[in-house]
Amino acid sequence: MSATQTVTQTVADTFPTTLCVGQPDIVYHPDEGKFRARTARRLAADPALPQRSLPDNFPPQVDGPIVWEGKDWKDESQWVYNLTDEQLAEIDRALAHFDSLDKPLGYINKETFPLPTLSAELWKLAEVLYNGRGFFVLREIPIDKYSRRELAIIYAGLSSHVGSGRGRQDATNAVLAHIKDLRATHAHEKGGIGNAAYTTDKQVFHTDIGDLIALLSIQTSAHGGVSRLSSAGRVYNEIAKTRPDLITVMKDNWPLDRFGANPGYVERPVLYNEDGHIVIQYSRRQFVGYNAQVRSANIPPITEAQAEALDMIHFYAEKYSLELNFKKGDIQYINSMGLLHARDAFTDDEEHTRHLVRLWLRNDELAWKTPKPLEETWKKLYSVPPEDQRFPLEPEIRRTAGGATK
Ligand SMILES: [Fe+2]
């Protein structure tokens, strides 16, 4: 069956039951031995690969404040913004104000959650996301003082001053997503657990869709779960210097698995140079699957060159990464167009059950130009009207339009 036929099939028909034919030997967890062997095989077949020219519009090197590596940072005082008692009191007043309006949570915005003095600080921090290092941590929200609903209002309210666009997390218009080990409670759902976000497993380097990611830590794990960030520009510089042929591979189209959605796959690059910004945008599971969600049969496999590039991005991102430790009550904000992120495996115990709540945001005034192949996705992401926005207060797995988990 051809890939074209897959596009028109129903969800049930396309749900994967067999391996994708012709897929290279590569899985979700990068294997450095296999990566080195693949590189050696490809260079033996074509020793001139490292001498290839960079594609048009891709410079030999990039620089700027968002091009950094882990060792450039001394300690967390460089990126942690500590909220003062007066600012926390201002947040409480904004919470009371929003509650007094008696509006659905989708109406949380800069006007309904007013922060007379903190707003200007949050704007400066938003500028750091788009024009600076690309990340910061807000510390700390006194989690235990509030109900889940109050926390959702505070979190979305504060975040609306960083970026007023709130992205939908799934096909049911959820705008809050929970990152938590849900294997004991949700593994029976259609599609099962197809994303490391719902396990204690390591999440390898990737980006989310959209401009900005916010992660509120409601509870931390007993051990592990370190969060890692890495600069897309730094990774780009290394690949451009050593393997310019793979820059060409990255900026060309890749087949992204949509795991049973219709169409079964879409094609787009993983690398863009838009308006002077290097953007890497991909999730490894879209090319190799994860756990129950193996790569769909009857869609095009990735190529050996793409498999090599995937591992190279991961290993350079890991090499040049910065570790961030979440504290309970922290909110981590990340520019997901300029930075990749990952998380170590972790263990929970009775009192420590790692639980993050995620928002996807965009600040229209500060935003980078969205690369054309991403425009449609971005438009859908940030177009949920306030009355349709859903704020799941308890953990659930994101859903596709077909009802399966994703
Ligand atoms: Fe992520």
Automatic annotation (TrEMBL):
<dbReference type="InterPro" id="IPR050411">
    <property type="entry name" value="AlphaKG_dependent_hydroxylases"/>
</dbReference>
<dbReference type="InterPro" id="IPR003819">
    <property type="entry name" value="TauD/TfdA-like"/>
</dbReference>
<dbReference type="Pfam" id="PF02668">
    <property type="entry name" value="TauD"/>
</dbReference>
<keyword id="KW-0560">Oxidoreductase</keyword>
<dbReference type="GO" id="GO:0016491">
    <property type="term" value="F:oxidoreductase activity"/>
</dbReference>
<dbReference type="InterPro" id="IPR042098">
    <property type="entry name" value="TauD-like_sf"/>
</dbReference>
<protein>
    <submittedName>
        <fullName>Clavaminate synthase-like protein</fullName>
    </submittedName>
</protein>
<feature type="domain" description="TauD/TfdA-like">
    <location>
        <begin position="103"/>
        <end position="360"/>
    </location>
</feature>
